[in-house]
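Thought: the user wants the 3D structure for the chain below. I'll pass the sequence to the structure tool as-is, report back what it returns, then summarize two notable features.
Action: structure_tool
Action Input:
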Amino acid sequence: MFGLLNINKPAGWTSRDVVNRVQRIVRPVKTGHAGTLDPLATGVLIVPVGRATRLTEYIHTVSKTYVAKFELGKTSDTEDSEGDVKLHEVDHIPENRVVERVVAGFLGKQQQRPPVYSALRVNGKRAYQLARQGEQVELAPREIDIFQIAVRHYEYPELIVEVECSSGTYIRSLGRDIGELLNTGAVMTALERTAIGSWTVEEAVAPDFDTPQDVNNSLLNPVSLLGNYEQLVLNEQQQGELMHGRRISLQDSDAEEVLGISQDGELLTVLNRVEQSDFFKPVKNFFPS
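Observation:
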Protein backbone atom coordinates (compact mmCIF):
# COMPACT_ATOMS: atom_id res chain seq x y z
CA MET A 1 0.00 0.00 0.00
CA PHE A 2 1.60 3.26 -1.16
CA GLY A 3 0.19 6.74 -1.73
CA LEU A 4 -1.42 9.79 -0.19
CA LEU A 5 -4.91 10.35 1.16
CA ASN A 6 -6.55 13.74 0.64
CA ILE A 7 -8.84 13.83 3.66
CA ASN A 8 -11.38 16.49 4.61
CA LYS A 9 -10.77 16.77 8.35
CA PRO A 10 -13.99 17.32 10.31
CA ALA A 11 -14.26 20.04 12.95
CA GLY A 12 -13.52 18.77 16.45
CA TRP A 13 -11.10 16.09 15.26
CA THR A 14 -7.38 16.44 15.88
CA SER A 15 -5.03 15.57 13.03
CA ARG A 16 -3.91 12.61 15.14
CA ASP A 17 -7.55 11.42 15.38
CA VAL A 18 -7.63 11.17 11.58
CA VAL A 19 -4.31 9.32 11.41
CA ASN A 20 -5.40 6.91 14.15
CA ARG A 21 -8.61 6.16 12.26
CA VAL A 22 -6.65 5.22 9.16
CA GLN A 23 -3.93 3.41 11.14
CA ARG A 24 -6.40 1.10 12.87
CA ILE A 25 -7.65 -0.06 9.49
CA VAL A 26 -4.37 -0.54 7.63
CA ARG A 27 -2.00 -1.66 10.40
CA PRO A 28 0.75 -2.81 10.32
CA VAL A 29 1.16 -0.41 7.37
CA LYS A 30 2.57 2.93 8.54
CA THR A 31 0.63 6.20 8.32
CA GLY A 32 1.23 9.82 9.27
CA HIS A 33 0.12 13.32 8.35
CA ALA A 34 1.75 16.27 6.61
CA GLY A 35 0.64 19.57 8.14
CA THR A 36 -1.27 19.74 11.42
CA LEU A 37 -4.75 21.22 11.60
CA ASP A 38 -6.11 22.38 14.97
CA PRO A 39 -9.37 20.77 16.16
CA LEU A 40 -11.21 24.00 15.31
CA ALA A 41 -10.11 23.77 11.67
CA THR A 42 -11.53 21.74 8.81
CA GLY A 43 -10.33 20.91 5.33
CA VAL A 44 -7.44 19.29 3.51
CA LEU A 45 -5.23 16.99 5.56
CA ILE A 46 -2.71 14.89 3.65
CA VAL A 47 -2.21 11.43 5.17
CA PRO A 48 0.71 9.45 3.67
CA VAL A 49 0.31 5.68 3.75
CA GLY A 50 3.02 3.02 3.62
CA ARG A 51 6.40 4.08 2.31
CA ALA A 52 4.85 7.40 1.26
CA THR A 53 5.37 8.51 4.89
CA ARG A 54 8.97 9.14 3.77
CA LEU A 55 7.69 11.98 1.57
CA THR A 56 6.47 14.21 4.41
CA GLU A 57 9.38 16.66 4.14
CA TYR A 58 8.63 17.15 0.44
CA ILE A 59 4.92 17.67 1.02
CA HIS A 60 5.83 20.45 3.46
CA THR A 61 7.36 22.42 0.58
CA VAL A 62 3.97 22.69 -1.17
CA SER A 63 1.91 25.84 -0.56
CA LYS A 64 -1.26 25.77 1.53
CA THR A 65 -4.45 27.78 1.02
CA TYR A 66 -6.87 28.77 3.78
CA VAL A 67 -10.07 30.68 4.30
CA ALA A 68 -10.14 32.09 7.82
CA LYS A 69 -12.84 33.93 9.75
CA PHE A 70 -11.83 36.41 12.45
CA GLU A 71 -13.82 38.41 14.97
CA LEU A 72 -12.38 41.86 15.59
CA GLY A 73 -12.80 43.60 18.94
CA LYS A 74 -11.58 40.59 20.90
CA THR A 75 -8.32 38.90 21.90
CA SER A 76 -7.51 35.40 23.13
CA ASP A 77 -4.54 33.74 24.79
CA THR A 78 -4.74 30.97 22.15
CA GLU A 79 -5.47 33.50 19.37
CA ASP A 80 -8.68 31.63 18.53
CA SER A 81 -12.17 31.30 19.99
CA GLU A 82 -11.27 28.18 22.00
CA GLY A 83 -9.06 30.10 24.44
CA ASP A 84 -9.69 32.74 27.10
CA VAL A 85 -11.48 35.34 24.97
CA LYS A 86 -11.59 38.94 26.20
CA LEU A 87 -13.13 42.10 24.80
CA HIS A 88 -10.69 44.58 23.33
CA GLU A 89 -11.57 48.24 23.59
CA VAL A 90 -11.92 49.71 20.10
CA ASP A 91 -11.85 53.49 19.70
CA HIS A 92 -12.55 53.52 15.99
CA ILE A 93 -14.07 50.86 13.74
CA PRO A 94 -11.72 50.43 10.73
CA GLU A 95 -13.07 51.38 7.32
CA ASN A 96 -13.02 48.85 4.51
CA ARG A 97 -10.14 50.55 2.69
CA VAL A 98 -8.03 50.48 5.85
CA VAL A 99 -8.69 46.79 6.40
CA GLU A 100 -7.88 46.01 2.76
CA ARG A 101 -4.59 47.94 3.00
CA VAL A 102 -3.53 46.31 6.26
CA VAL A 103 -4.31 42.79 5.02
CA ALA A 104 -2.51 43.37 1.71
CA GLY A 105 0.56 44.49 3.65
CA PHE A 106 1.17 40.91 4.77
CA LEU A 107 2.03 39.76 1.25
CA GLY A 108 5.54 38.32 0.85
CA LYS A 109 8.29 36.97 3.08
CA GLN A 110 8.24 38.05 6.71
CA GLN A 111 9.00 37.02 10.28
CA GLN A 112 6.05 35.63 12.24
CA ARG A 113 5.87 35.08 15.99
CA PRO A 114 4.22 31.66 16.53
CA PRO A 115 1.37 31.34 19.04
CA VAL A 116 2.29 30.39 22.59
CA TYR A 117 -0.34 27.65 22.45
CA SER A 118 1.35 25.64 19.71
CA ALA A 119 3.01 22.24 19.35
CA LEU A 120 6.46 23.78 18.88
CA ARG A 121 9.02 22.48 21.35
CA VAL A 122 10.78 24.59 23.97
CA ASN A 123 13.57 22.76 25.80
CA GLY A 124 12.04 19.43 24.83
CA LYS A 125 8.48 20.30 25.87
CA ARG A 126 5.51 21.43 23.81
CA ALA A 127 4.91 25.17 24.08
CA TYR A 128 1.21 24.67 24.85
CA GLN A 129 2.07 22.35 27.75
CA LEU A 130 4.29 25.02 29.32
CA ALA A 131 1.66 27.70 28.73
CA ARG A 132 -1.04 25.61 30.43
CA GLN A 133 1.26 25.23 33.43
CA GLY A 134 1.38 29.01 33.70
CA GLU A 135 4.99 29.31 32.54
CA GLN A 136 6.19 32.25 30.48
CA VAL A 137 6.80 31.03 26.93
CA GLU A 138 8.81 32.95 24.36
CA LEU A 139 9.02 31.60 20.83
CA ALA A 140 11.46 33.04 18.32
CA PRO A 141 9.95 34.50 15.13
CA ARG A 142 10.13 32.27 12.06
CA GLU A 143 10.27 33.18 8.41
CA ILE A 144 7.08 32.56 6.46
CA ASP A 145 5.98 33.47 2.96
CA ILE A 146 2.53 34.75 2.01
CA PHE A 147 2.06 34.14 -1.72
CA GLN A 148 -1.46 35.56 -1.99
CA ILE A 149 -3.78 37.22 0.52
CA ALA A 150 -7.14 38.95 0.10
CA VAL A 151 -10.16 40.11 2.09
CA ARG A 152 -13.16 38.01 1.08
CA HIS A 153 -15.66 39.69 3.40
CA TYR A 154 -15.60 42.48 5.95
CA GLU A 155 -18.48 43.75 8.02
CA TYR A 156 -17.31 44.71 11.47
CA PRO A 157 -16.66 42.75 13.59
CA GLU A 158 -16.44 39.87 11.08
CA LEU A 159 -13.45 39.59 8.75
CA ILE A 160 -12.90 36.73 6.30
CA VAL A 161 -9.49 36.38 4.66
CA GLU A 162 -8.19 33.96 2.02
CA VAL A 163 -4.46 33.28 2.12
CA GLU A 164 -2.01 31.06 0.23
CA CYS A 165 1.16 30.60 2.22
CA SER A 166 4.19 28.49 2.99
CA SER A 167 4.21 25.63 5.49
CA GLY A 168 4.77 26.77 9.04
CA THR A 169 2.45 29.77 8.76
CA TYR A 170 0.05 30.14 11.69
CA ILE A 171 -3.19 31.63 10.42
CA ARG A 172 -4.44 32.52 13.91
CA SER A 173 -1.20 34.43 14.45
CA LEU A 174 -1.75 36.19 11.13
CA GLY A 175 -5.14 37.26 12.47
CA ARG A 176 -3.52 38.42 15.71
CA ASP A 177 -1.07 40.58 13.77
CA ILE A 178 -3.82 42.02 11.56
CA GLY A 179 -5.82 42.88 14.67
CA GLU A 180 -2.83 44.58 16.27
CA LEU A 181 -2.30 46.81 13.23
CA LEU A 182 -6.01 47.66 13.13
CA ASN A 183 -5.96 48.42 16.88
CA THR A 184 -8.95 46.14 17.30
CA GLY A 185 -7.49 42.81 18.32
CA ALA A 186 -8.70 39.70 16.48
CA VAL A 187 -9.72 36.15 17.34
CA MET A 188 -9.94 33.36 14.79
CA THR A 189 -13.38 31.76 14.92
CA ALA A 190 -13.21 29.39 11.93
CA LEU A 191 -10.58 28.01 9.57
CA GLU A 192 -10.77 25.86 6.47
CA ARG A 193 -7.71 24.63 4.59
CA THR A 194 -9.10 24.69 1.09
CA ALA A 195 -6.04 23.34 -0.71
CA ILE A 196 -2.53 21.97 -0.44
CA GLY A 197 -0.88 22.64 -3.75
CA SER A 198 -3.32 21.58 -6.46
CA TRP A 199 -5.26 19.21 -4.19
CA THR A 200 -8.49 20.85 -3.06
CA VAL A 201 -11.06 20.30 -0.35
CA GLU A 202 -13.69 19.66 -3.02
CA GLU A 203 -11.74 16.52 -4.00
CA ALA A 204 -11.06 15.43 -0.41
CA VAL A 205 -12.74 12.39 1.13
CA ALA A 206 -14.24 11.88 4.58
CA PRO A 207 -12.25 9.71 7.03
CA ASP A 208 -14.99 7.07 7.19
CA PHE A 209 -13.04 4.08 5.88
CA ASP A 210 -14.19 0.62 6.99
CA THR A 211 -11.72 -1.71 5.28
CA PRO A 212 -8.13 -1.63 3.96
CA GLN A 213 -9.61 -1.75 0.46
CA ASP A 214 -11.53 1.48 1.18
CA VAL A 215 -8.24 3.17 2.03
CA ASN A 216 -6.44 1.66 -0.95
CA ASN A 217 -9.17 2.88 -3.32
CA SER A 218 -8.70 6.45 -2.06
CA LEU A 219 -4.89 6.56 -2.34
CA LEU A 220 -3.52 9.16 -4.75
CA ASN A 221 -0.25 9.33 -6.66
CA PRO A 222 2.19 11.66 -4.80
CA VAL A 223 3.58 12.88 -8.14
CA SER A 224 0.44 14.92 -8.82
CA LEU A 225 0.86 16.81 -5.54
CA LEU A 226 4.59 17.44 -5.86
CA GLY A 227 4.37 19.55 -8.99
CA ASN A 228 6.91 22.02 -7.59
CA TYR A 229 9.66 19.45 -8.25
CA GLU A 230 11.22 18.64 -11.60
CA GLN A 231 10.05 15.24 -12.81
CA LEU A 232 12.02 12.85 -15.02
CA VAL A 233 10.76 9.71 -16.74
CA LEU A 234 13.46 7.11 -16.13
CA ASN A 235 14.45 4.58 -18.78
CA GLU A 236 15.16 0.95 -17.88
CA GLN A 237 18.91 1.45 -17.63
CA GLN A 238 18.54 4.43 -15.28
CA GLN A 239 16.05 2.52 -13.16
CA GLY A 240 18.46 -0.40 -12.87
CA GLU A 241 21.30 1.84 -11.69
CA LEU A 242 19.17 3.75 -9.18
CA MET A 243 17.48 0.62 -7.83
CA HIS A 244 20.92 -0.54 -6.67
CA GLY A 245 21.78 2.83 -5.14
CA ARG A 246 24.09 3.96 -7.93
CA ARG A 247 24.10 7.51 -9.26
CA ILE A 248 23.20 8.59 -12.79
CA SER A 249 24.12 11.57 -14.98
CA LEU A 250 21.43 14.15 -15.83
CA GLN A 251 23.14 16.80 -17.92
CA ASP A 252 19.95 18.63 -18.91
CA SER A 253 18.70 19.30 -15.38
CA ASP A 254 19.29 22.53 -13.46
CA ALA A 255 17.42 21.33 -10.37
CA GLU A 256 18.94 20.20 -7.10
CA GLU A 257 16.23 17.61 -6.47
CA VAL A 258 14.38 15.56 -9.08
CA LEU A 259 11.52 13.07 -8.89
CA GLY A 260 12.24 9.96 -10.93
CA ILE A 261 9.04 8.47 -12.31
CA SER A 262 8.07 5.48 -14.43
CA GLN A 263 6.56 5.51 -17.92
CA ASP A 264 3.18 5.19 -16.18
CA GLY A 265 3.83 8.26 -14.02
CA GLU A 266 4.43 6.36 -10.78
CA LEU A 267 7.00 7.72 -8.32
CA LEU A 268 10.11 5.54 -8.25
CA THR A 269 12.75 7.65 -6.50
CA VAL A 270 13.80 11.05 -5.21
CA LEU A 271 17.18 12.17 -6.54
CA ASN A 272 19.62 14.74 -5.14
CA ARG A 273 22.40 16.38 -7.13
CA VAL A 274 25.91 15.31 -6.16
CA GLU A 275 27.86 18.48 -5.24
CA GLN A 276 28.16 20.75 -8.28
CA SER A 277 28.16 17.94 -10.81
CA ASP A 278 25.82 16.45 -13.41
CA PHE A 279 25.35 13.34 -11.28
CA PHE A 280 22.31 12.59 -9.14
CA LYS A 281 22.03 9.98 -6.40
CA PRO A 282 18.89 8.31 -5.04
CA VAL A 283 18.00 9.46 -1.52
CA LYS A 284 14.58 7.80 -1.25
CA ASN A 285 13.69 4.81 -3.41
CA PHE A 286 10.15 3.57 -3.96
CA PHE A 287 10.77 0.90 -6.59
CA PRO A 288 8.27 -1.99 -6.41
CA SER A 289 9.59 -4.90 -4.38
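Final Answer: Structure generated. The chain has eight helices and 17 strands. The chain has three domains: 2-62+198-224, 67-155+164-186, 229-285.
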